[in-house]
Design brief:
The protein is α+β, with helices and mostly antiparallel strands. It contains five helices and five strands; from the N terminus they run ααβββαββαα. Helices cover about 30% and strands about 15% of the residues. A hairpin with a 3-residue loop joins strand 1 and strand 2. The longest helix has 22 residues.
Amino acid sequence: MPETMWAPWRLEYVERTDVGTQHSTDIFLKLPQEQNDEKNLILFRGVTGFVMLNAFPYSNGHLLVAPYRQVCELEELNDEELLEINKLTASAIIWLKKVYQPNGFNVGVNLGRAGGAGIPVHIHWHVVPRWNGDTNFMTTVADTRVIPESLASTYEKLSTALRDG
């Protein structure tokens, strides 16, 4: 029988109605419009979508792939967006393999707030490099992530890999 961990302090967040609504900031609309890619951690711009570093990564190299257009459901994307998002996701994996040589990846989409989406009004993919043994007591017991490299260093390494082909 699995143990139950009670976290009643989370109820306030779960019951909030403004989290991820149009009233909160949609970084996937705002940041590409600023035209300051390094500051905003945008690594690559395509025609219908782009790739950026996650500012709150699960591991070094955690990338986000998003369409420019604000849609919240997978079925709302058109064929051009679906094709490019998948190509960008595949490219992100190639770039991460070149720079970090991970042993595997988690690739996924959280649909809706209940599905774990931090910004449920704008669909986006997570590309998370993983290494054998990268889960340790800090994450599983202490609810703490250890990220050994700064976002600036990660951005520089990945943008160099993109420029070098």
